[in-house]
Design a protein that fits this description.
By secondary structure, the protein is α/β, with parallel strands linked by helices. It is built from eleven helices and 18 strands. It is globular, with a radius of gyration of 21 Å. The relative contact order is 0.15.
Length: 402
């Protein structure tokens, strides 16, 4: 029976929120594209509307449709996954949650303390710095323009917005959006416990931090150990321009892991993957995977933007490599890149665990139906050595280039 519907605006967000429930043993199914039919055995269903870069009106329509579907399926808790840097169609999508449900209040908890994101006096901070003053404010495609949560939300809705400091009572009556401060996982859990005392339906918003707190309240058993398909080779694919992801790929290169850069005027050109040059790249990469176990594939800097075809061309290159190399574990950095690569996989991904906070591991099936580990993360998450941590998590001992 469906307990919870999570609606995300990008693919990495869908997985890093769903993993919080899957790691505690909940029956979870995540869809990186809205499916025609839902898995009736799932208690937690996660849908990616891929609406972060869409016009506000279209984003509203997509969220409205999924919430209405969720209501018909009996979901009693609806959760809007948002970007922890306050990017995307926040006001429009939160308003769609309220409109679809007919509810009076939506409680928004954007903090993710494990990822360095906290909310203090209504301001979203990354490691103590207002988010718009960090690298998120320099995003070349969609910079964070507001650090105050209410200011970011109010760009797209006229709904009343209240700001509640940590420790203060939450309003139980009224209409609109209630922004809740939190600087620790404990504060998030306390808020979730309070909210679960409310009569259903319950409308929530937040990122992986709030999802983790909610999962602990709904599924208090100890987290279960992951059971993943065996993996002997790992292909790491980065289409992210975030400085964190760029630094992680540079760290991998410094460790001696073979790396290929996909250039906008060559490997990312239309038809490259099926050309003779594309075959040579695939064969070379497959041979390197056989020798070294881990290979890096990254897009040329400034080659990707929402709506362009670089993500699709990256996915085509990955597809050709996988055809030559056989089943490989995939680690994908960047939500737009992940969404394109998901088109190579069968629908319905099963989240399992986290390598580190914000870096979930799922089980996917390739086109041949073989189960493979799928690791994903948004651009700004993970430590500098995340690639070696992923390989270690999968028990892959990579061999550096001589």
């Amino acid at each position: 029976m469906l307990k919870l519907l999570i609606i995300a605006d990008d693919s990495t967000g869908a997985l890093d929120s769903s993993i919080q429930f899957a790691s505690r043993g909940a029956p979870v199914r995540a869809y990186l594209h809205p499916p025609n039919e839902w898995d009736g055995a799932a208690e937690v269903l996660v849908i990616n509307t891929d609406s972060r870069h869409l016009p506000a009106e279209k984003a509203w329509e997509l969220v409205h449709r999924e919430v209405e579907h969720g209501r018909r399926e009996g979901a009693r808790i609806l959760f809007k996954k948002i970007d922890s840097a306050l990017r995307g169609n926040l006001g429009s999508e939160l308003a769609a949650m309220l409109s679809s449900d007919g509810g009076e209040q939506l409680y928004l908890m954007p903090a993710y303390p494990a990822g360095g994101r906290t909310t203090y006096n209504g301001v979203q901070l990354w490691n103590g710095v207002p988010v718009a003053e960090t690298v998120y404010g320099q995003d070349p495609f969609e910079p964070a323009r507001h650090s105050r949560v209410a200011g970011a939300v109010a760009l797209q809705t006229d709904l009343p917005i209240a700001e509640i400091p940590a420790g203060r009572p939450m309003p139980r009556k009224g209409t609109g959006i209630v922004v809740l401060d939190a600087s620790s996982d404990g504060e998030l859990r306390d808020r979730c416990r309070e909210l679960l005392d409310n009569p259903a339906p319950l409308l929530l918003g937040g990122c992986a931090g709030a999802a983790s707190a909610l999962a602990e309240c709904l599924y208090p058993e100890e987290p279960c150990s992951p059971s993943l398909p065996p993996a002997e080779k790992l292909l790491v694919v980065s289409g992210s321009l975030h400085t964190v992801s760029r630094g992680q790929m540079a760290e991998g290169r410094a460790e001696g892991i073979p790396c290929h850069t996909l250039r906008i005027d060559f490997e990312l050109a239309r038809g490259f993957a099926e050309s003779e040059a594309g075959l040579r790249l695939a064969q070379e990469t497959a041979a390197e995977l056989e020798r070294h176990r881990v290979v890096l594939l990254e897009t040329e800097q400034f080659s990707f933007s929402p709506g362009c075809e670089a993500g699709r061309r990256t996915a085509e290159a990955v597809d050709r490599i996988c055809r030559e190399a056989g089943p490989v574990a995939l680690a994908v950095f960047g939500g737009d890149t992940l969404l394109e690569i998901a088109g190579l996989l069968r629908p319905g991904i099963r989240p399992c665990w986290e390598v580190v906070p914000g870096v979930p591991v799922s089980i996917a099936e390739n086109r041949e139906g073989n189960p493979i580990p799928l690791i994903s993360k948004s651009g700004g998450f993970g430590p500098k050595d995340v690639i070696s941590r992923i390989a270690s998590f999968l028990n892959i001992n990579f061999r550096t280039q001589k």
